[in-house]
Amino acid sequence: MDLILVNLIDGLVTGLLLFMLSAGLTLIFSMMGVLNFAHASFYMLGAYFAYQISIALGFWMGLLLAPLIVGLMGAGVERYGLRRVHQYGHVPELIFTFGLALLIEELVQFVWGKNHVPYNAPEILEFTAFAIAGNSIPAYKVFMIFISVGIFIGLLYVLTKTRVGMIIQAALSYPRTVEALGHNVPLIFMGVFGVGTALAGVAGVIAGPVLSTFPGMAFVLGPIVFVAIVIGGLGSLWGALVASLLIGWITTFAKSYNIEMEAILNGIGIATPESLSDSPFRDVWSLTSPQIADILPYILMVLVLIFRPAGLFGKRTQ
Amino acid sequence: MTDTKSDVKGARPKEQITTPGTPASQRMRAGSMTISLAPWLIAAFIMLILPMVFTNNSALTIMNQMSITIIFALAYNMLLGQGGMLSFGHAVYAGVGGFFCMHIMNASDFFASFPLPVLPLFGGLFGMGLALIIGSFSTRSAGTVFAMISLGVGQLIASSSVIVVAFFGGEEGISGDRTYAMPFFGVEFLQQIEVYYLTAGWVLISAALMYLWSRTPVGRMANAVRDNPERAEFLGYSARWVRFYSFVASGFFAGISGGLFAINYEILTEENLNATSSGLILLVTFLGGVGFFFGPILGAIVFTLVQTVLSLETDLWSIYAGALFVATVMFFPGGLAGLIMMHVPAFKLGKARLLLMPYVKTLIPAAIGILAICALVEMTFHYRHGALGDNEMTLFWTTFDSHSVLPWLIAAAIAVVGIGVARKTAPSLREAWNEANTAGGTR
Prior knowledge:
The complex is a heterodimer. In chain A, 73% of the residues lie in helices and 3% in strands. Chain A is an all-alpha fold. The N and C termini of chain A lie far apart (44 Å). By secondary structure, chain B is mainly alpha-helical. Helix content of chain B is 69%, strand content 3%. Chain B is built from 19 helices and four strands. Chain B is globular and about 65 Å long. The interface between A and B is large, with 64 and 61 residues.
C-alpha cells in the first residue's frame, strides 16, 4: 500500500513534467495546425540555459530567466522560420521543425559537449520532505509538483478567465473573424508559440537536475510527448493532462513492480514450454515489466489509434 | 477525408497534409505518358563504368552505400513526394527486411540452395508484409495522424529490438556471411566489386519499377489523393486504399534496400531501425527534392558524398548538414531537383547565358563568405574543445594558432566582405533572373 503511494507520487511527477511539454505542444498544434517536432529541443535548451545561468546566478535566477530566453527563441523561430515555411504547406512545416530539432541537438553538443553537465537541484531543496514507510520523498519532487500544478492553474486561468485568453481562444477557432475585429493574429500566433516553448523551457529547467542534462534528453522525451498528445487527442488540453498522467503512472508502476511475462502467460492458462532456450518465442517468456516500461506508451498509443483514432478526448471522427 | 478536420479545434482548414501553394513546376511531374529509355540506359552505362574509374575499395564502399540509400530514398519518396504522407519511422521497414535477410543468411541449409542476388527480394517481401499490417490502420488519413502513427510504430519496433533478442539480436545486432549462398554463375561475392554490381543491378531494377509504379493508375491517383483527397474520393477512388497501396509498395522497396544493406555490411543493429535512420532518410529525400522522381536519387548521391567526405574533414559535419537541411526547407522547398528544374524555362527561352555572370558575381562571394563562417565555427569549436596546450589547427591548408586574434579577424573580415558583396549583387541577380524567365526580346 505504501509502495503504491510512493509510485503514485513518482508517476505524478513524471506525468506533470510530461504535461508541461504536451500542454505547450498541443496549444501550438491547435492554433497553427503544425506539430512542433522541436518542442522537446526547447525543453533541452531550457535545462542547458538554466545550468549555465545557475553557475553564475544560482538556480532561482535560472528558473526565472531560462524559460524567458527559450520563449523568446521560440517566438523568433515562429516569426522568422515557421511563418516563412507556412506558405509551402504543412509537410515542409513539419519537416522544418524536424530539421530544427536535429540542428538544436547538434548545436547543444557544439556548445556544451557530448557529456552530461553537472546541473544540480538547489541545496535549499536537498532534504527529505516526508517519508512513507521508509521511502523518502525528496523536497525537490514536491517542489516540482507544486510548480507544475501552479503553471497549469495559471494557464487555465489565463485561457479561460482573461481577455487575452478570450482572444486566443477566439483566434483558435475563427482566426479571420478575430483579425477582422482588429487583432493582430500573426502576433497572437507568435505569442502562443513563444509561451508554448517557454513552458517546455520551464519543464527543462526543473527536470534537468532530476533526469540529468545531456544532449540526448530531447531525443529521449520527444517521442513520448507526441505519444501523450496523440493518446489524449490532438488539440485537447484536458486530454494532454490525462494522457500525460496515465503515461507517467504506467511507466512508473511497470518499472517498480517486477512482473514477469511468464507469470502472466501462466496466469491466463498458457504453460511454459519445456525447452525454452530453443523456442523462437523465448523472449516473450523471459520479458519483465521494467524491460518493457519504456515501450508501454507506444503500445498504448497504437492501441488507442486503432480503436479510437481521435484519441481519448479528441472529438469523434466521421 | 473530411473526418480529420473536426478532431482539431479550429486548426486551419488544411488539416490534411497536402502541398498546396507549390508551383506546378515543383510538384511531381505528371506530364507526358511517354516513357523514355535513354536516361535509364545512360544510368546503367554510368553504373557499369564507375568502378573502372574509381577502383579503390573505399570508393566502392561509398558507391554501395549510395546505391542502398538511393533505393531507400526512392521508396520513401513514394510516400512523401507522391502520396503526401510524412513518415517518421520508415527505417523500420528497411531494417526489418534486412534483419529477415540476415536470418536467411544464417539459416545455412536453406541459404546454400539459392543464389545471393535473390536475397533482397525476401527482404522486400518481409518489409511489404510489415507494411501490410501497419498500413492497415495507419493509412486512414495522410495528415498529422499518419505522421504520428509512423513515429509511434517506428519507436515501438526500434525499442523492442533491444528486448527481442531472438530476432533482433539485442544490442549487438546480428551478423551473417553472404558467401554461404549458392554461387551465382560462378560468382561467390567474396569481393567488394561483385557486391557493387549486385547492388547496382538492384538499384536499376528497383528504380525502374518504382518509376513505372508512379506511372500506373495507382501511382497517379496517389498524386491526386495527395493534392486533393476529397476530390479524388468524389471521383470514386478510395483515398485510403490508394494510400494503402502506396504504403505497401514503399515498404516492399524499403525492404529491398534493407536486404542489400544486409548483403553489403553483413551486420544489422538497432541503428538500422531507430529514429535517427528514419530522420536521415527524410533529410536525404527532402534535400534531393520530393517534387521530381530523380530528386531522391540526387539527394542520396549528394548526401552520401557529404557524409563520407565531409565527416573525414570535420567532426562538425552534422551541424553543417542540419543547417543545410533547415536552409533547404526554408528557401528551396523543391530541393536540389527543384533548384535544377527552375532553370529549365530559362534554357527553353535560350536565355540561360544571361544568368551566368550574375551567378558568378553573387554566388562566389556568398560561398566564400559561408566558408569563412564555417571557419569561424571550426575555430570556436577548436578553441573550446581542443586539447589543452594544443593551439595549432589546420584549416583550408593553413596552419595557425586558434588562440591568437589574427586568424579570427581575418575569417570575420572575409565573412563580412563575402556576404556583403553577395547581398549587394543579389538585386542584379534577381533582375537577371526575371529577364531570363520572360519570353521575348533577347538583349
